[in-house]
Amino acid sequence: MSVDFCGLRLAHPIINGSGTFDAIGARHAFGDALHSAFPFAAFVSKTITLAPRAGNPPPRLWEAQAGLINSIGLPNKGLERYMSEDLPELAQLPVPLITNVMGSTAEEIAELLRACDTRKEIAAVELNVSCPNVHTGLDIGADPAQLERVLRSVRPALRKPLIVKLTPNCADVAECARAAQEGGADAVSLINTLRAMALAPAGAHGRERSQSLAWLGGGTGGLSGAAVRPVALAQVAAVARRVSIPVVGMGGVQSAAHAHQFLAVGARLVAVGTESFRDPAVASRIASQLDDEGPPT
Ligand SMILES: Cc1cc2nc3c(=O)[nH]c(=O)nc-3n(C[C@H](O)[C@H](O)[C@H](O)COP(=O)(O)O)c2cc1C
Q1: Which residue from 83, 214, 215, 248 has the fewest beta carbons nearer than 10 Å?
Q2: How far is residue 34's CA from residue 36's CA, in Å, rounded to a whole number?
Q3: pLDDT in tens, 35-46
Q4: Is the CB of 99 under 6 A from ligand 1?
């Protein structure tokens, strides 16, 4: 079951989706038991930005049919406090640590990568490119030419493996994946959440009907969970056909059968996200079921 991923030897192919499992909180709740039965073969941190972010005001979550719309707004304590407060705790996890970062300019991204490069606790970096470029307003990862240009300029700042987490909200995700590979990515991961909107029911949170449009996060949020799985599978398949670097597939994975589907279309690893909120042990079960069953025939 062990998998080679960008030179990291992982015990099995199941990891977490960034931002969907709080390893530090879980450790405080469950103690060392969490470490002896850690569900993931590598741990991906939630997105870290240079400056701290408060995130969006509530409401931040909305249940859609078979899915979840979130508009959390990437709250995080910022690079400096992540390094001093979280990294020592995350380094105690029994699996390699992948730090997920996001910046809105090439300079910001290079600074984040340089900082990660200096810390031996970090095995690899995942770059979240679902972030608007401050100059163009366009998501950095949504335009292949822009993505390749930014990656080429920041890639020298990191000597560790770089995973680029693609945005699904683009015209041609396989072309973005190819651009990421050309720009120096060692792997790509997808899908991030699909742009989505929830309208407030009249009366919710004291709002009148006239105030109800575009309620969540002041506009749009991101859809995840079972509802996105067919879209995710199609995007992962298209990307795996286009690039030669490893692909991390995710989007609505809830069972070993779903994980098999992502592996079958070309993913090297599979990440579990939203489902961990419902059942924090689901990834352990998926990994042990994959192990029992062996590769699909
Ligand atoms: C509540 C929540 C928070 C998330 N936070 C992040 C994040 O900080 N960084 C990131 O790259 N993706 C983030 N994601 C996206 C997930 O990592 C994953 O790409 C997406 O949810 C699809 O997988 P899933 O359907 O299994 O959840 C978040 C998703 C959810 C639901």
Answers
A1: 214
A2: 6
A3: 888 999 999 999
A4: no
The tokens for 288 are 């042990």
Q: Give distance in angstroms: CA of 135 to centre of ligand 1.
A: 25
**Ligand 1 and 252: CB distance under 6 A:** yes
Task: Express each pLDDT in 266-294 by its tens digit.
Answer: 999 999 999 999 999 999 999 999 988 87
Burial 266-276 (b: 16+ CB within 10 A, else e): bbbbbbbbbbb
Q: Tell me the catalytic residues.
A: 131
Expressed in angstroms and rounded, the spacing between residue 36 Cα and the centre of ligand 1 is 25
Q: Report the CATH number that the domain containing residue 11 is assigned in CATH.
A: 3.20.20.70
Range of the domain at 188: 3-58+74-196+226-293
Question: What does the pLDDT average to over 138-167?
Answer: 96
Q: Sign of the C-alpha dihedral, residues 193, 46, 147, 80?
A: positive
Q: Based on the structure, what is the number of domains in the chain?
A: 1
